[in-house]
Amino acid sequence: NNLIKIVIPGRIDTQVRYYGWIEKIPSSLKKRIEIVLLGLVNSESDFEIIQKFEELGFPQPIARSGKFISNEIFEKEIESANFLFFSTIQLTNYHRQIDRNLGSLFDSIRYAKPLISPLHQPIPSEIQENIITYKDDDDLVDILKSYVNEPKKVLIDSEKAFNNSKKFSIDKLTYFNEVLALINKKKSENFF
What is the spatial distance between Cα 192 and Cα 181, in angstroms, rounded to a whole number? Predict the structure, then answer.
């Protein structure tokens, strides 16, 4: 199977995630990649995202409106992926940029998968080796084309993410410790 599989874990959410890039993927590339939305759908506008992916040639058999995805299916999909992906809108609040996207960062480490991420997204220095960044939609398409045209790059980046992920447990990542310290500070101030 020469398909490159990209999994987008996390809730389908038009408030903090950006999906417009899907319309930029050329037909020739669509035949070579599989993109799986792997998250809960809560609203009609979120469900429209699934429909848009399907209309553009990316079937979405897993995402179901109002239903959680079982751990077994979630893990199977992520483990079979070449890449994890998340595309966020650029939030103005730095802390919101972090807490809205921790899941994808954790998943990249936990499953030892490369994560494709927008350049504006804060990334812990410790996991930079897991991350492939893009500037805009056109840059993302060029990156995807490079993986399709040079399959060795998929293996190289997968191995890099695997080796990097072996070095860490979540509690060793200073970035996450900073987030936890912020949460604890807010708790002590009766913020929560």
Answer: 14
Of 77, 99, 73, nearest in space to 88 by CA: 99
pLDDT tens digit string along 150-190? 999 999 999 999 998 888 765 565 655 666 676 677 667 66
Q: What is the DSSP string of 46-76?
A: HHHHHHHHHHTT---SS--BT-PPPHHHHHH
The single residue listed with the structure tokens 């409106």 is 65
Task: Give the CB-side neighbour count of residue 127, counting CA atoms within 13 A.
Answer: 34
Gap between the Cα atoms of 155 and 151, Å rounded: 7
| Whole-structure pTM value | 0.81
Rounded to the nearest angstrom, the gap between the alpha carbon of residue 86 and the centroid of all alpha carbons in its chain is: 3
